[in-house]
Design brief:
Number of strands: 7
Structural class: mainly alpha
Number of helices: 26
Helix content: 55-70%
Largest sheet: 5 strands, mixed
Radius of gyration: 27 Å
Amino acid sequence: MSTSIEFLTTMGKMAGMLQFLKNHQWALVLAFIASIIISYPQISLRYDNRDVYQGVEILGGIGDERAWLSRVREAYDGHPSISNAYFKEGKNDPYLFQPLGSVIIAYLGKLFSLDINNTLLLFRLLFPFSVFLLIYGFLLFFTKEKLVALTTSAFLFFGNTIFSRNALFSMLSGDPPSPYYLNYTRPVNPLMTSFFFYGFLLCFLLFLDASTRLSVKKQWIWGVASTLMLGLSFYDYFYTWTFLYSFLGVLILIFLFQKKWQDIKRIGLVLLGSLLIAVPYLWNLYRATTYLTYSEVGQRHGLIETHAPVLGFLVPLLFIFFLLFFPRAWKERYYFALALVIAPFIVLNQQIITGKVLQYAHYHWNYHLALAMIFLSIIFFSWVSKTNWRMLKKTSAILIIVVSIFTGFWVQSSSYAVNKELVIDRQRYGAPLNWLSQNAVKDEVVFSDNETARLIVIYTPLNVFYHSSARYSLAATTERLTNTLFLYYRLNGVSGNEAQEVFFKDREDISWAIYGIYYRDIAGGYEKIPDEILLDLVGKYQESFMVDNSTFFKEMLQKYQVKYLVWDKRDYPLWNLEQYQFLRKITELGDFVIYQI
């Protein structure tokens, strides 16, 4: 008898699951399309160019993809804190980039014994699918309309290029929209950050909104899930948890006016629980602030001291549209949405109190633009629902979904076409990267040019002498960055007498290499670095010639424990490493010569 009951219970659960899948079949279809479109360029590269493919993937066409992948590789190699993914030094320093997203991707690959490329491919297949469904789930419970949730999710996932003025004009003229892939193609951010952001909003809405008709027990389960999502976001992305805390703060103020003490209590428990989860992160942040290099690294990150307010264009416009057109009949959901559109004003202007400006572009591209797309879509469908045209709503939904998917595929395919030649050329790095992986010992240091270094830290378990993203770690002192800059100029044959002319000509590159985005953000451009600083660098560079090239080079390599050197003869012929007697040539692979000290 008990066996029969268990069988019937199992069959009932299966039937319920099948009915659930049937009810949301179109969301599953669109989520599957999202995975295909996001992974399409990487799959195409391997298939179209299988005769020349040497394992170097499409990198660098998606913002900071190479920097993110280097952190994934660092976690993959057994350094999950990712304090410094580039130098041998600083592995135990406090981290400045939250490691969780990179660790999840790395451990996903290790779980299935995949190399870094297949780890990335698996991630691009799984997480677009998951994130799309999280966005859909949040919008479904928020709008209570499946068609609106489907359409808005597709619009948000595939169509954000339409919100770029230049890309939109290009598309309307029939040209490819952009040479850059969809944002969701890039690993870690924004896919992982969106996972925690929309995961929290979905779980928190189910916890807070009584109209979902969940039992009290199930609501509290979602409350625990939202607490976990918010707490873990501390370890994933600074801009996620700061935005969500601002949102929750605004929501508490709204509920105070409404005297909703029970809801305030629930939010308070979520905040308290997330803070408990965040204690190790907050301790790490405190430790970072005690480092001598913290202030100079903070400047390179764009941390500027000012109390000036920031409004921008999108956030006020969104707020006005919301007040004028968002359906007020939604009651509790209206105030939930109101808190979401007020939160951007807080995160953009926290410096009025703190005096420290953050990189508010991160809020714009990851959250403010997404919220604008969501609420404009909701407002549009609210207006359509009031018309007498019965088929307008469904026709509009189909049109938006089709155009969004087409835009997403067009962006991916045109970006792949634009970058294909460069990616094929990068296959020449395959041989030296394979040699280093097979012959060098883990965590040894390699000297090379910056382009080669960017690939070394992704495709090998090794560290490098210099990497352009290393300036954002606590181990990157200004002295080290300056000495590195001088060494590369000397290798390229720039004499002391030529220094002033060359340094002023390269002022943007020098500003970027030593001071990060500081002068871009504080003065409006990298080239705004003061002449006095450049002249000071010129003087120091000229003083460095008190030591001859060979001695200076050898001292720098020994100081930073360099074991191997990779010379790209094609792109850096002036280096002429053959002249240095302390280097021993090991092998020559195409355009590259590998030396050992």
